[in-house]
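task queued by scheduler; priority normal; single chain, no ligands, no partner chains; default sampling; output format set to structure tokens
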Amino acid sequence: MNILFISISPMHHMSKHSISQDLLRQFTKDGHSVYVVCSTERRNNVDTYLSIEENCRVLRVKTGNNKKTSIVEKGLNTLVLPKLYIAAIKKYYGDIRFDLVLYPTPPITHVRTVKYIKRRDGAKSYLMLKDIFPQNAVDIGMMSTHGLKGILYRQFRRIEKELYKVSDRIGCMSQANVDYLLKHNPEIDREKVEIFPNGIEIVDVSINALQREEIRKKYDIPLNRKVFVYGGNLGKPQGIDFVISCLPKLSGYSDAYFLIVGDGTEFNRLEKTIAGHNWNNIRLLKRMPKEDYDRMISACDVGLIFLDHRFTIPNFPSRLLAYLQAKLPVLAATDPNTDLGETIQNGGFGWWCESNDINGFCSLVETALKDDLQAKKDNGYKYLLEHYQVKDTYKIIINSL
């Protein structure tokens, strides 16, 4: 088959390990031809170009800025994105007829591009539903269902429903996502909705005791403390207010070290908070290359996940897989609507509490400090092998269509 993958992401080189790249390489391994349309933001000063990477054709389209920018600019750029993508497809992929089009959210505005390909080529379409927008923006106060902001919400809600309608199959990340989607969109045919979890090509990132010591020394991480690491976006969805509220109590655990790695709209708030105190067991680092990050977290002890407590939609963060691959138990503080906590507890590889319970979170930190973590590490890696291998998620798409 000729596969078209549409993404708003800039997409690192196709040889890199990530959820999207791993999936697309799996298609090529099975003999399919893969074509990608993704973005290169205006700030990069690079015009639209086509490259061949790992047997995939990758078309990077010059777009407006979508990351680290104002919500107004991001919204406008998202709305004009389909026009840019369709024009680029006509120019660079005009002689290709696609059998299947794959597209993750965000954004929901992929719908115009998907409709164009379906109308032109008669292709099947598969939506990989990673975020439920615009409700997620409403939950954390970035959008409103009333007033002037309500006009924008209703426009995006209309586009969202149109996206569900045009999709032949909708893959949700967990059962809670399936249930939410069908409850709030009863017009969707239940038969076309299924569980489609994130999947990765699992790489052995195990390290020995000597390597662990070398990595900790490289990043100036204490050798004699249990290290709790958070890696990823530091924005509104992560509920950074809760994280900041926990820091004073966490600073009192002399046998623990808390390492936060990432960037995002809330990075500066965290940086100012930490800089304003003489905490010797809390550290903030800027996002680093994925290969360096993956190796660094292998020398840590517990992976952290945070989600804003206001979420009514059931998010399921992809960073879980990085922790499990590094054989880290997971401590999550989230809203009560996601089934992430249930997954962690049922899998026997970590702990969960609601992200409005500072004392509850600190109590779980104390539990992790006392626990022998080896059993949870083993359980987590086993769970990864059983549920999140890309070869299995690939089969879900193939069997569906």
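post-processing summary
- The chain has a mean pLDDT of 92.
- The first helix runs from residue 19 to 29.
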